[in-house]
Amino acid sequence: MTTAIKAENVSLIYNVPPKNGVKDFAARLIKREPLLDKIEILKNISFTLEKGSALALIGANGAGKTTLLKLISGIMTPTSGRIVTKGCISPVFAENKGFNPSMSVKNNVYLAGSMHGFSREYMKKRIRSIIEFAELEEQLNTSVKKCSPDMTSRLAFAIAAFVKTDIIIVDEALSVCGEKFCEKCVKKMSEMKANGTAVLFVSYSGKQIINLCERALWLENGEVKMTDAAENTCKAYNEFYESLS
Q1: Residue 116 CA neighbour count, 13 Å, CB half
Q2: What is the structure's pLDDT at 141?
């Protein structure tokens, strides 16, 4: 099988100002100490994802899931280690979907296409499928700023799913959507996977993960705690947090 994503010893360190601001800066200058504190966000992350397969990322809030996905998408650069990807990546992030809020739903489809290197003619052939899948026929000419988070999430996923892509990344973007639509998305990603697309998926639904993904990677405080079959990893994750409570 062809490897779509390979991460090797990936780490990310943030340099942040000291908590007490100017006082600490002054003291550190006098003592000739480093002016910034280092916070390790990700620590030696390694994994591979093959074409035609799906990997789930699981972990508590702040574990580093979104940060890792941004590194894979090329939005951020690791401090050390390397990430190798093969082919076109279509990321769908919950926090920033890349839309122009003043433009209509229709024009945002064309904008998203152009940002991924697809011509207007290419997107024109797919816009009906995108809009129908997103269930936004009545909002076609509505500006995105008037759309709910649910609508923009549906639109972002539909665009990523109906253009040619080798890797689709979905980061909790479906969490604001209804269960029925989420099921439709999981089914669509399964179809994409069968056609050779690699899927990297973040969800708090164990059912969605197990139905879609062969494997799951559990991140805990920026480190890989476990990588195994999706069902085994989800079970261990749930048992771990149940024991804490």
Answers
A1: 30
A2: 94
Q: Are the beta carbons of 157 and 186 closer than 8 angstroms?
A: no
Q: Decide: 49 and 4 in contact? Cβ < 8 Å.
A: yes
**CA distance to 11, 19, 20, 83, per residue, from 73 (Å):** 15, 31, 34, 10
pLDDT band for position 35 (cuts 50, 70, 90):
low
Residue with the two structure tokens 């006098």 = 30
* Tokens describing residue 203: 């969800």
Q: What is the dihedral of CA 85, 49, 178, 244, to 10 degrees?
A: -120
Tell me the two tokens of residue 224.
């890989």
Tell me how far apart the alpha carbons of residues 144 and 6 are, in angstroms, rounded to a whole number: 35
* CB-CB contact of 208 with 186 (8 Å): yes
In Å, what is the CA distance from 77 to each residue of 69, 89, 143, 174, 201?
11, 16, 33, 26, 20
Q: Could you tell me if 234 and 216 are in contact, meaning their C-beta atoms sit under 8 angstroms apart? A: yes
Mean pLDDT value across residues 38-61: 95
The CA distances from residue 237 to 44, 68, 127, 227, 241, in Å, are 20, 19, 40, 11, 6
Q: Taking the model in full, what pTM does it have?
A: 0.88
> Residue 74: what residue type?
G
Q: How far apart are CA 39 and CA 15, in angstroms?
A: 6
Pairing mode of beta strands 198-202, 54-58 = parallel
Question: What mean pLDDT value characterizes the chain?
Answer: 91
Q: How far, in Å, CA of 165 to CA of 89, rounded?
A: 6
